[in-house]
Amino acid sequence: MEVLLIAVLLGLIPAMVAKNKGRNFANWWLYGALIFIVALPHALLLKAAGPNFKKCPFCAEIIKAEAIKCKHCGSDVGVSSGQTEKLLVKERPWVSTAVLSFVSIVMGGLIGYGLDSAMEKWFGIHTSPWLLFVFAVLGIVASFRVFLRLVTRKQ
Ligand SMILES: [Zn+2]
User: Fold this and answer.
1) d(CA 115, ligand 1 centre) in Å
2) How many angstroms is it from 99 CA to the middle of ligand 1?
3) Where are the domains of the chain?
4) 3 state DSSP class of 69
5) Which of 3, 17, 125, 155 is paired with 83 by a 20 to 30 Å CA distance?
6) 3-class DSSP state for residue 49?
7) Residue 33 in contact with residue 58, Cβ under 8 Å?
């Protein structure tokens, strides 16, 4: 259990690095959890897709923010990056929100469970099932906030 937990937490590091460079967080998280040793240097070496870049809404490739035509698929993308982001979110907000919520609840449960058994094993303190409970609630609260943001977003 602890090994799995550590892998999941370590995976967050390359995932955050890659996310800052405009890459997919979930993919990199999985990648980092599975092969952290490879994923971290890979993430660090990634070419940054910072504020000067945006994602083509048609083919999802990273292109320059000033581009009005995608160099990958040739589509017209003459909108600001903010608008592009809105377009992307509009596509399937419920699917990504549901996935995000599920992940945060499962993560909360896993972290709580891992901490419970770690406390028991390393410090001999019996916390089970309270840490599991606390972190599961945190996961539910986090997912609730995501849903709230989706519902209250202006159309
Ligand atoms: Zn494109």
Assistant:
1) 44
2) 25
3) 1-48, 92-155
4) strand
5) 17
6) coil
7) no
**For residue 42, how many C-alpha atoms fall within 13 Å in the half-sphere facing its CB?**
14
- Contact between residue 139 and residue 107 where contact means Cβ atoms under 8 Å apart: yes
- From the CA of 87, how far away is ligand 1's center (Å)? 14
Residue by residue, pLDDT tens for the chain (155 residues) are 677 778 888 888 889 888 887 788 998 998 888 887 788 888 887 776 556 778 888 898 888 877 888 989 998 887 554 554 555 555 566 677 777 778 888 888 888 888 898 888 888 888 888 888 888 888 888 777 777 777 776 54
Q: Who's near 153: CB < 8 A, 6+ residues apart? A: 93
Tokens 């995501």 correspond to 146
**CA 71 to centroid of ligand 1, rounded, Å:** 6
CA triple 71-78-56, angle to 5 deg = 45
54 sits in which H/E element: strand 53-55
What's residue 155's pLDDT?
Answer: 47
